[in-house]
Amino acid sequence: MEDRPHKPHREKKDKGKGKEKHRGFNEKAFAPKSGLRADRQGRRNVERDQTRLHVPLVNRTPDDEPPPVIVAIVGPPGVGKTTLLKSLVRRYSKQTLNNAKGPITVVSGKKRRLTFIECNNDLNSMIDIGKIADLVLLMIDASFGFEMETFEFLNILQAHGFPKVIGVLTHLDLIKKAATLRATKKALKKRFWTEIYAGAKLFYLSGVLNGRYPDSEILNLSRFISVMKFRPLVFRNTHTYVLADRIEDLTPREQIRTSGGKCNRTVTMYGYVRGTHLRTGARVHVPGVGDLAVKSVEALGDPCPLPGADPEQEKKRKLSEKKKLVLHAPMCDVGGVMYDRDAVWINVPGSFTRGNDVIQGEGEQMVMDLQDAEVTLEDVVARSQVRLLGSSAKHLTVEEEVDIEGEDDEDDEGFDGEESDSDGEDDFDSDEDGDEDEEDNQASLFHSRGTNTGRTSLRQPTRSIPSSSKQHTEVEYAESDSDLGNDNDGGDQGRVLFDNEEDEDIPSADEGDKGVDDEDEETPRWKQNLVTRTQATLSSVQKARRKDWMKLIYSSELSPEEILRDLKDNVEKAQEDEDEMIDDFFRVKTKAGTVEEILDRSKESLSEEELKRWEDEEVLESIRHLFITRDDNPRDDEMSHNDGDEDANEEGKEDLKGIEDADPAAALTAKKEALKRKFDAQYDDPESAKLDFYEEKKDEMARQLALNRAEFEGIDAEARILVEGFRPGQYIRIELVDVPCELIENFDPTYPLILGGLLPAEERFGFVQVRIKRHRWFTRTLKNNDPLIISVGWRRFQTVPIYSLDDHSIRMRMLKYTPEHMHCYATFYGPVSLPNTGFCAFNSLDGSSLGFRISATGVVLNIDRSAKIVKKIKLTGVPYKIFKNTAFVKDMFNSALEVVKFEGANIRTVSGIRGQIKKALPKPDGAFRATFEDKVLKSDIIFLRAWYSVQPRKYYNPVTSLLLSDKGKWTGMRLTGQVRRDGGLKTPLNVNSTYKPIERPARRFNPLVVPKKLQAALPYASKPKVMLPQRGQTYLQKRAVVMEPEERKAVALLQQIRALRKDQVARRKEKKDEQKRERRKRLAKEEALKSEKEKEKKKEHMRIAGQKSKRAAESEEGGGRNKRRKT
Predict the structure, then answer these.
(1) How far apart are alpha carbons 281 and 725 in whole angstroms?
(2) What 3-state class would DSSP assign to 71?
(3) Residue 1107 contacts by C-beta under 8 Å, 6 or more apart in sequence?
(4) pTM of the predicted model over 0.70
(5) Is the four-CA dihedral 534, 535, 540, 543 of positive or negative sign?
(6) How far is Cα 785 from Cα 40, in angstroms, rounded to an integer?
(7) Three-class HEC string of 298-324
């Protein structure tokens, strides 16, 4: 064995030797084996691509400055909404909120801002949030499961346009077992995907640390929110709306005091414009308040600006941490500032005493100064003395009668006085910056004559000119005193240029001897940017001379006379600007002359010479090709109508302009060649053939958006607002008038305040027809003419609908109840809404309802439809005169006029005899003659089936929940039964409506009498076999029976035997009944014992099964620690 040689080791063969490695996709490996399979795979790929596409919608939100994305946090109470809100705000803005109320806006990126708002557990808030939210964070308590409020909110979203929804599972830390946690996550995820869509995002929040969720989980959620894309919804793309983040009451305090606080208020609301453009003059609807009139709208500066506007930020890829610290939350106590309904409260932490020597910050010192103020700003302004210049010796005074000459003399005297410092003459102390601001705000463009320039210090050597310049009288002023060189900060005093002085810098003889200190001297402010200011002045003069047609058309502040005089006034203003250099301080303005009124003429006056020119045949021939003629050859203008590209048409028109003037035939040939080139370019280019309908629509919308941007690019902001309104993304201030005082008195920032813009058609009221379906989770059936709360568009209101069904496209038949699991029509009176607008209906908005509160959903079909709703009516009458086939009928109508309306109508009897109404009878009223197909009886009831038109009731009651102190207790019209139940009233009993036993007399019919002649003619089989009754007694009835004694004994014996037999049968039956009763008792006792045994067996079986399941659970929880490893 040891001498046997070992086999040599076989080397491993390289299986891939000689084969080249395939890199990338191998087409042969995945090629189908059959053509049918390839066809199916291609069809499936195409269908899968089509499912990704959606209907292209124009996004009216601007891309450069979009409004903040509204992120709503929704969930049942106690699920952790406020904790999530504080955690997200902390993640984005690095600030901690103590009291989170109202909308909170933060910056999440260079091009995106987020507005967080928490939805409380109120059905009105859910409806409002569902209409405006761009993203919904739906919070679910994992330890409890889905609750009714969650499903209600999802159904509200389905009715009002479904935004993006992200699920958030909380309270996962309450589930201790890992297996139970995995099963819970899986079950909730499956149910969530069923309600939203398969693949919807679901985040998990495990626990709470330091009052917030873990930073890593919040970071994942915030990253997903920051990059999410949103698709425009149809309703929001056509309506403008504002989520108010601040509200102020501007009503005068005296008016509120005199009215006891019950007067209508003037309120301003602040917020970002969303949806489409907000046009001036449009009415708005505040859900929970009603329709309100807008007094004015003003664009304000963005309180939370986008960092992308900073050019330095554009270069950076990541947003700096400093830019993220911006937080706009007026209703919260952020930074110690809180906006109340009528005041702004500034909370300065710490103790502030008057004798404290601690150095305060700038803001804290400002608050202290405000507390120390003894007089108001109005008193300071009343006691202030305005000087035209800082060096003026006298202040300006207003007199009743102004003498122009004396005023000029007084001004001259004022400028000839001694030079003095302006700070020493002011009535109240102010620093140098305040003096500069005061001088800048004064009218510095006035002109005066004076020999003293009013300097407060000596001229500088570098800017000095000969002293003879003081003799000049004309003074040139800059835009402010600081531009003139009257700047006291640096000590360098500029010089006022006179008319004859040269506008250039004249160096002095001592300039070279100044040394290094003079070289560092700055140029005076009045000499800086002279060329730029001159060009701006010239452009402003030119703009003043030009007419601004945009403002003249869209602005309503000017009257027609002012518009007519506008050009002349602009010319006069330009002339005044040129003559300002030689004018006095004050200029007497004369009243403009009245413009002669010229009648507006719609037709231009024509002279006879111009009309004679059209009699020339050559002129007519030159324009004949512009009209439709009978010429078989198409003219060149007819060929120009095509559906091609606009650019190609423009190029063809430019190329053919010169040819058309030279030769029409050549022009036609050139046009045909241009069309052929266009056709070839369209059908031969492979790239253009790839564009399908979806791509074409997207390109068309992109071109239209670019065209709109180019159209408004050169227009200033004011004119653009007049034309298109306030763009989405602008922060505006809306002033509303006639606002109910209860909105201010009962204002609660936890409820959203929305201003929804109304289209012109939505301001009117009418009958609206909708398609409605009762919700499958609502238990009760909806009844006709019962009040229903409908949420459609921005509005919520209570109305009384009428349900109907289309009866074979012939009539709209009224329904008493809504059908089961089927749509029907409903018509109600209310504000007009556009077709295809979704809505949801509720029987009650009270939060105390135990069941599902959404009663129905549907969509608006039509407005003021002409089809009438009819219901069945059955008129009954009785005949009072009967002829062969004719009868006179009464008690069906009340007058002959009603009979005339129903002439020719079909009628029937209860027995089925059909007839027709012929004509009315003179007496009695309402009687008529009718014909039937057979003779009727007096006992027959005749009825007429007809249709009666039904009109919905004009009832509209808006839901004004925001006007109540308890927002969830709004109640509208109640049913009669509910009113009686609330009041403890009994239902009134009508005596005629009670059930009574019906006693009908027996009817007697006459016997059938066949005439004798007819009987004689009938065969024997058909003759009636009627025998007459026997009148006399028969022999058997008359005879008397007398028995013999033996017969009597026999009869008596038989009677005794029968009696004994009868008694024996009775006793035997009674004995059998007793035996049966005993047997039933015995069987019942046995059954009771048997049931007891069965119960014991079940208990034992369940006890064993419970022990088995407990052992299995313990083994799973142990995880196999006690299991032995198999060896």
Answers:
(1) 10
(2) strand
(3) none
(4) no
(5) positive
(6) 55
(7) EEECCCCCCHHHCHHHHHCCCCCCCHH
Q: Distance between CA atoms of 495 and 497, rounded to whole angstroms?
A: 6
DSSP state of 1116: H
Looking from the CA of 229 toward its CB, the CA atoms found within 13 Å total 3
Cα–Cα distance, 723 to 726 (Å, whole number): 9
pLDDT tops 70 at residue 728:
yes
Distance between the two ends of the chain, CA-based, in angstroms? 34
Residue carrying structure tokens 């793309």: 237
Peptide bond preceding 740 in cis form (omega within 30 of 0): no
Q: Where are the alpha helices (DSSP H) in 418-565?
A: 422-425, 432-441, 516-519, 530-545, 549-554, 560-564
* Pairwise CA distance, residues 842 & 537, whole Å: 65
Q: Give the separation between CA 7 and CA 14, rounded to whole angstroms.
A: 21
DSSP-based three-state secondary structure for 485: coil
Q: How far is CA 156 from CA 285, 549, 772, in A?
A: 19, 47, 14
Dihedral sign from CA coordinates of 295, 301, 306, 308? positive
Token pair listed for 1013: 């002649």
Q: What is the DSSP string of 386-443?
A: --SSTT-SS-----SS--HHHHHHHHHHHHHS----HHHH-SS---HHHHHHHHHHS-
> How do residues 78-130 score in pLDDT, each as one tens digit?
999 999 999 999 999 888 888 888 899 999 888 899 999 999 999 999 999 99
Report the C-alpha gap between 871 and 813 in whole angstroms: 6
756 touches 288 (CB < 8 A): no
Alpha helices in 726-810 (DSSP H): 741-745
Asked if 831 and 793 count as a contact pair (C-beta separation under 8 A), the reply is yes
- Residues β-bridged to residue 931: 886, 916
Residue 459 makes CB contacts below 8 A (sequence gap 6+) with 493, 495
Strand partners, 907: 915
User: pLDDT tens digits, residue range 539-577?
Assistant: 665 555 556 666 666 665 666 666 666 555 554 555 555
- CB-based contact 240:273 (threshold 8 Å): yes
| Residue in the block written with tokens 């309104």 | 725
For the chain, what's the residue count? 1127
Tell me whether strands 327-328 and 113-118 are parallel, antiparallel or unpaired.
Answer: unpaired
Token readout for 276 is 């489409």
Give the pLDDT score at 131: 93
Instruction: Name the CA radius of gyration of the chain, rounded.
Output: 49
Q: String of b and e for 186-197 (b: at least 16 CB within 10 Å)?
A: eebeeebeebbe
Higher pLDDT, 784 or 345: 784
Cα 739 → chain centroid? 21
Q: Rounded to an integer, what is the distance from CA 751 to the centroid of its chain?
A: 16
Helices (H) and strands (E) in the chain, counts: 33, 30
Contact assessment for residue 834 and residue 759, using Cβ atoms and an 8 Å cutoff:
yes
Structure tokens at 530: 């002279």
Given a contact cutoff of 8 angstroms between Cβ atoms, the answer to whether 97 and 103 are in contact is: no
The encoded tokens of residue 1038 equal 């008359």
Question: How are the residues of the chain apportioned to helix, strand and coil, as percentages rounded to the nearest 5?
Answer: 35, 15, 45
Q: Is 220 helix (H, G, I), strand (E, B) or coil?
A: helix
Residue 921 · residue 898 · CB < 8 Å: no
Exposed e or buried b per residue across 655-687, where buried means at least 16 C-beta atoms within 10 angstroms of its C-beta: ebeebbeeeeeebbebbeebbeebeeeeeeeee
> Which helix H or strand E contains 290, and what residues bound it?
strand 290-300
Residue 245 one-letter amino acid? D
Give the DSSP H or E segment for 637.
helix 636-639
Q: How far is the CA of 604 from the CAs of 601, 609, 613, 773, 873, in angstroms?
A: 7, 15, 17, 62, 66
Structure token pair of residue 834: 């556009």
